[in-house]
């Protein structure tokens, strides 16, 4: 087990019980020997689900299957294994996914395999040990109404150094609505319309169409606003289940929807930031904010360029206020910039404008900021427009090399 | 001085004397204390020049100046300092470039400042020490017809661990034509229509228009086909000077032009590969070849995605045959792929096709290949088209972190 990231949250929230959700985890031995690596969640009939998946053209068999489950509209359960991604495994990989779903369906009355999402992450290009997994699903997964979210978060992790959970609780129409979310992810992180693996469960009541709309919208400002290493997984999956057992029917307009979306964004942003805080080898958490862009997309492209630059990330790892590398990362995007108004700040210290260093710039203030763990970079592109975006990332350290030059062994 | 890269060429070529070229180097003390860091080259009147520059929107003052020199059509000299890039330095930076060109022009009869290209690389965002540079140009640069290409290549370097030179000699119309090239670059390397700094001198005779056409064409398959760390410099400059003192007039069609272009490509590809071989922290040289793409641009996008993937680069650093990461890097581009025909090979060993691992795959053969220094990756996108491309890169090691987490100090 890897040492816990120094950026891990100091406290773990007390997770709520979401009505209509049963779960189980077990150590199947498929890859990891002494920890949970297989898990399942089954929501009551009547549950609706929304999902977003990786846009990779080499997406894995579990993603292809789960897209079908989403489109048939009846998905309400999931089975997840950790350590083997079941990607680039051809026909056998597709058969194996179907078998996993079928095996879970067999043990739950009224559950069909077409209602079971499947997720797998880990090494790409290896076949699953299905004898091991099928036996574990059939015999060792004991679904329980006692929701142990931490055990679930642990069992979906691979190179994660801590379990990632988040919650929200709101009140609608006099009734309490619960949100419980979990995620895994540490490397191969630049989600594209999705994330590594993230699941959010709520007992709120709304239509599937509205649930999907809300998930897409919030994903843009949470999982799609993070990067660890610019590599996009073949397994990215984010699912949102609503069991519809609490509160009034939420409609597309009005304060109920606003409250629901805000709570969902809180949970998803929290999980997304926890993924960055567990970025492989991370020693600093970096928030990049870009404004004055042509539009929000342009601002995000610049923010991602800064967040993905190995030279920016290593400078911050070394506590070096080498802001010239930020100028470089802005320039390489070719997004519109009003150069003579471009400004660069770190830790809220204005460092430079298009005419160079500001008068009286005191580098020691920035150095002091960079000695901490929470780093901010603010860039104003100079008024090409009103677009802005925030992206979260981490620094690039020896730890990243240690983990990834020796992953499979 | 950094330890010489293990991938450095084993021998240095005997460099030719190119007719009509004078040069000088000196230690100005602007940044480096005990080595050459300032250099100048002056070609005879009648010389023509071609150039390509960084496409960065934050390109430095020397690049802006040199673009003007190129467009006025009379450029035939250059002055280069190492250690300070003179980028994002506003009006002062622009004045300083003009002063450097003027100072060189002052000491050469018949040379105008508008004929002097200027290049600077190093830290971004600091002002040049002009008192130091002006004095060194005026007093310490002694132009000589004895061409010391190695001294010149050393004096333009920054984090380079060895001087990069290349040559070619051809015969046209019974006369010998010489090519001498030099380059610097080690980090912040993913040139976009240019490279860090590269200069090629020839005494061939041809029109400026043809020279520029040839340079653009060859750049695409040399400097634009390499990457070290996906970061694009604000200072990238590649200049090609022809003194027109040897051989027949080369026209746009015919065997003379073909021979000229082939020799130029040999020199530029050699220099480009030397930059990769000196990639910061590099321990392995990697050739990525992609075929079966929609077109050459699509093939290059996929090859660059593989070559820039931190997970692919760290796996190779660790000698890990983790080919699944290559599948990931193909997928994240969203370039067209015929997935069931996609094939992945390393070291000429076919590893996987769209249906997964090939029968009888022997990982030890790939592991043996990865234990060496020259790694090949071959990807066939499955016949989406006939496009193909080759990109050269290096692995990502602890050395890169060491160098870049502590660059300015």
Task: Give the count of helical stretches of chain A.
Answer: 11
Which two chains share the most extensive interface? A-B, 72 and 72 residues
- Quaternary structure type: homodimer
Question: What is the CA-based Rg of chain A, rounded?
Answer: 22 Å
Content-based structural category of chain A: alpha+beta
Give the CATH class of the largest domain in chain A. Answer: Alpha Beta
Annotated CATH architecture of the largest domain in chain A: 4-Layer Sandwich
Quick recap of the structure?
Chain A has 409 residues and is α+β, with helices and mostly antiparallel strands. Helices cover 31% and strands 25% of the residues of chain A. In chain A, the strands form 4 sheets. Chain A has a 6-stranded mixed beta sheet. The first copy, chain A, has a 5-stranded mixed beta sheet with strand order 3-10-8-7-6, sandwiched between helices.
Kindly describe this structure.
The structure is a homodimer of 409-residue chains. Chain A is built from eleven helices and 17 strands. Chain A has helices spanning 61-72, 90-106, 130-140, 149-156, 208-220, 255-277, 296-308, 310-317, 324-331, 363-370, 398-404, and strands at 21-26, 38-43, 48-53, 77-84, 116-123, 164-172, 175-184, 197-202, 205-206, 237-242, 249-250, 285-293, 343-346, 349-353, 356-357, 374-380, 387-394. In chain A, the strands form four sheets. In chain A, strands 15-14-13-16-12-17 form a six-stranded mixed beta sheet. The mean pLDDT of chain A is 92. Chain A has 409 residues and is of the alpha+beta class. Chain A folds into two domains: 21-277, L-amino peptidase D-ALA esterase/amidase; 285-404, Roll (Ubiquitin-like (UB roll)).
């Amino acid at each position: 087990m890897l040492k816990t990231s120094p950026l891990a949250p100091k406290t773990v929230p007390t997770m709520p019980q979401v009505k209509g959700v049963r779960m189980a985890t077990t150590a199947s031995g498929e890859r990891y020997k002494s920890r949970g690596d297989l898990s399942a969640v089954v929501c009551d009939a009547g549950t609706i689900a929304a999902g977003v998946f990786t846009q990779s053209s080499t997406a894995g068999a579990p993603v292809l299957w789960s897209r079908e489950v989403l489109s048939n509209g009846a998905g309400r359960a999931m089975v997840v294994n950790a350590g083997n991604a079941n990607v680039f495994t051809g026909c056998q990989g597709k058969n194996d996914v179907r078998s996993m779903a079928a095996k879970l369906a067999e043990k739950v009355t009224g559950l069909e395999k077409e209602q079971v999402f499947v997720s797998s992450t880990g090494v790409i290009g290896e076949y699953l040990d299905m004898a091991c997994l099928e036996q574990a699903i059939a015999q060792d997964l004991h679904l329980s109404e006692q929701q142990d979210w931490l055990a679930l978060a642990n069992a979906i992790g691979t190179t994660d150094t801590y379990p990632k959970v988040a919650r929200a609780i709101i009140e609608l129409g006099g009734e309490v609505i619960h949100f419980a979310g979990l995620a895994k992810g540490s490397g191969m992180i630049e989600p594209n319309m999705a994330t590594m693996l993230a699941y959010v469960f709520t007992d709120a009541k709304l239509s599937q169409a509205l649930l999907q709309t809300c998930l897409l919208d919030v994903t843009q400002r949470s999982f799609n606003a993070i990067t660890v290493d610019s590599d996009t997984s073949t397994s990215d999956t984010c699912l949102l289940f609503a069991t519809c057992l609490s509160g009034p029917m939420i409609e597309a307009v009005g304060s109920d929807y606003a409250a629901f979306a805000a709570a969902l964004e809180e949970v998803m942003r929290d999980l997304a930031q926890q993924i960055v805080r567990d970025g492989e080898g991370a020693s600093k958490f970096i928030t990049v904010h870009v404004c004055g862009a042509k539009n929000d997309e342009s601002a995000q492209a610049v923010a991602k360029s800064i967040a993905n630059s190995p030279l920016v990330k290593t400078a911050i790892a070394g506590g070096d206020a080498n802001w010239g590398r930020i100028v470089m990362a802005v320039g390489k995007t070719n997004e519109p910039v009003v150069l003579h108004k471009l400004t660069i700040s770190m830790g809220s210290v204005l460092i430079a404008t298009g005419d160079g260093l500001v008068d009286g710039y005191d580098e020691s203030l920035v150095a002091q900021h960079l000695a901490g763990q929470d780093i901010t970079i603010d860039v104003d592109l100079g008024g090409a427009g009103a677009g802005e975006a925030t992206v979260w990332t981490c620094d690039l350290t020896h730890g990243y090399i240690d983990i990834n030059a020796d992953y499979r062994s």
